[in-house]
Design brief:
Helices cover 28% and strands 25% of the residues of chain A. By secondary structure, chain A is of the alpha+beta class. The chains are: A alpha+beta (444), B alpha+beta (112). Chains A and B meet through helix 9, strand 14, strand 15, strand 16 and strand 18 of A and strand 2, strand 3, strand 4, strand 5 and helix 3 of B.
Chain lengths: 444, 112
């Protein structure tokens, strides 16, 4: 049996979580998931400004902090902290923690190969819209193939203490140590599916140990010390989901089911580079307090093509807010919105969308929200987006004047004009897996 | 009698591009058949109305006592493009639980 813990559900998650996982009990592999779609494009921009950047810069100092525990107890770390510059990330880890053996997985970054792909007849059509990539070729900021668990398992086989990848799937981080420790083959579809589903269950960190849990949320024990999840995996493809007993939070059928359903598509076809996992085969059983056993999982052969994650510059957006107080808070906010919209129209700005929400009334649930009685205050939130940066910038100057010239009682403008932000959009596409060759490099 | 869905189910929602997913899970697995009967794709589509511009798909997970809904074109373009506060549909799970469903009182009673 091996214990695999996830100490980071996204870049920005609780910094203490991985440290606590090592302090509070036994762990064999510590995985850290840093990458979301948007993250890759941010990192690509950082790399363009400085060739030494482009990775999750929180990661090397974390490794330095936990290095004594890793060495002392032979815990291996697997992270996709490499972003678009895994080699630079690995060198920085080695600089800060020279006693550790560091391996890096390369080959996911295809930013420099896009023209080659297009010339050779791959249209890299958008999986959602069907449009060919040529539509946005000039705006591409990053392009990475989702790689699976086997290259990461290969990196573990070098004896590395720290394995750094770029754009691998989140689930691969958890499946890789099982492949490495149990010797699973590339056609062990049921076992690979089990490891993939284990990865899905813990990839969002504490969202399976009582965080964001609807059931009895008021009674989640000691939630300020919430324990991050641990999978106890067995060679035959069954596993338990748990957390360190001394930590806070809760692991139950309810918390595991909620996470299983999170960001799920067709449950019979959960497609990864390693296999196609069938969520309708999962059998859950409680196994004492704070532990759920998972078994019965079936998988099918991996797909012939890998998914590409391409990000491109779409245009610009800005969102500003004003707060109106009672009486008639909502009426005042609506009147202010009407003024802003009229002025934007009179300016004849080239905007693709103007979107208004009334926080405290209906921002999240629209017509499904309960009818407001007399809200004490309402936040007007107006956002615009467009391809013309000047038009978006002009909008950001239209809210503040209403404090003196619009409906009475406006407040909450302390942060000044809202910033204009670049909209980086995401373009999913497919490429034959033979086009993606991965390699492992050990940093000495 | 009519009850809110949230009396017998819990939910979690998330995003895939401009599509929101909502998992609806029976608090007691014995109530799963009620979910299958009452929470149809058509009713979810009608309930979300202007919040969901595309189609609604439903998938069944009897092993988990759960249904998974995909609400297409529901997040204002999705991800970074969206201007919505809840661009990732995180709050949709709470929204579906206020839906009224029709149940027979005997269906809710504890089984012998």
């Amino acid at each position: 049996m091996i214990r695999i813990a996830n100490g980071q559900g996204f870049w920005g998650d609780w910094l203490e979580a991985p440290v606590r996982l090592l302090e509070d009990g036994p762990v064999d592999y510590l995985v850290l998931d840093y990458l979301a779609e948007i993250t890759m494009s941010i990192l690509q921009k950082q790399k363009m400004a400085n060739r030494q950047h482009g990775y999750a810069h929180d990661f090397p100092p974390l490794v330095q902090r936990i290095a004594p525990a890793l060495c002392g107890r032979n815990v291996k770390v697997i992270a996709n902290a490499g972003g678009v510059n895994p080699s630079a990330c690995a060198r920085e880890v080695k600089r800060l923690a020279p006693e550790l053996k560091v391996a890096v997985v390369l080959g996911d970054d295809v930013f420099d190969r896009i023209d080659d792909f297009l010339e050779r007849g791959y249209d890299l059509a958008n999986l959602d819209s069907g449009l060919p990539l040529a539509e946005i070729r000039g705006g591409i900021l990053s392009a990475n193939a989702y790689i699976g668990a086997f290259p990461l398992a290969g990196a573990l086989a070098t004896g590395a203490d720290v394995v750094i990848a770029g754009r691998c799937t989140d689930t691969a981080l958890v499946l890789a140590p099982m492949i490495h420790a149990f010797g699973w083959r590339e056609d062990d579809w049921d076992k690979l599916a089990a490891g993939t589903i284990a990865g899905h269950i813990i990839e969002c960190g504490a969202q399976v140990t009582g965080g964001n849990c609807q059931v009895d949320w008021q009674t989640i024990p000691d939630i300020e010390n919430i324990g991050y999840p641990i999978v106890e995996a067995h060679p035959e493809g069954v596993f338990a989901v748990t957390k360190h007993p001394a930590s806070g939070g809760r692991v139950s059928l309810h918390t595991v089911k909620e996470q299983l359903l999170y960001e799920l598509g067709d449950p019979e076809r959960y497609v990864t580079p390693d296999c196609v996992a069938d969520f309708t085969s999962i059998q859950l059983a409680p196994d004492g307090p704070g532990r759920v056993c998972v078994s019965g999982i079936r998988g099918r052969p991996r797909p012939p093509r890998l998914k590409l994650s391409i990000s491109y510059s779409w245009g610009w957006k800005a969102t500003g807010t004003l707060v109106y107080t009672w009486p008639q808070a909502l009426e005042k906010a609506r009147a202010a919105d009407a003024i802003v919209r009229r002025r934007l129209k009179d300016l004849n700005l080239d905007l693709a969308e103007v979107h208004t929400e009334f926080l405290g009334v209906n921002a999240c649930h629209g017509h499904l929200a309960p009818p407001p009685a007399e809200p004490a205050e309402v936040q007007l939130r107006v956002g615009v987006r467009g391809h013309d940066r000047r038009a978006v910038d002009r909008f950001t100057r239209e809210l503040a004047p209403l404090i003196l010239s619009g409906p009475p009682g406006a407040t909450g403008f302390g942060d000044g004009r809202p910033p204009v932000r670049e909209v980086v959009a995401y373009w999913p596409a497919l490429i034959p897996r033979e086009e993606i060759a991965t390699a492992v490099e050990v940093i000495e | 009698m009519k009850i809110p869905l949230g009396r017998i189910a819990h939910a979690r929602s998330g995003d895939k591009g401009d599509t929101a997913n909502i998992g609806v899970i029976a608090l007691d697995p014995r109530h799963y058949p009620i979910l299958v009967r009452e929470v149809t794709a058509e009713r979810v589509k009608r309930r979300f109305g202007p919040l969901c511009l595309g189609k609604v798909e439903r998938f069944e997970l009897p092993n988990l006592g759960a249904l998974n809904f995909l609400l297409h074109e529901s997040l204002g373009g999705g991800g970074t493009v969206s201007l919505r506060l809840d661009a990732q549909g995180k709050s949709f799970g709470a929204a579906i639980l206020s839906m009224e469903i029709e149940v027979d009182e005997r269906e809710l009673a504890p089984q012998p």
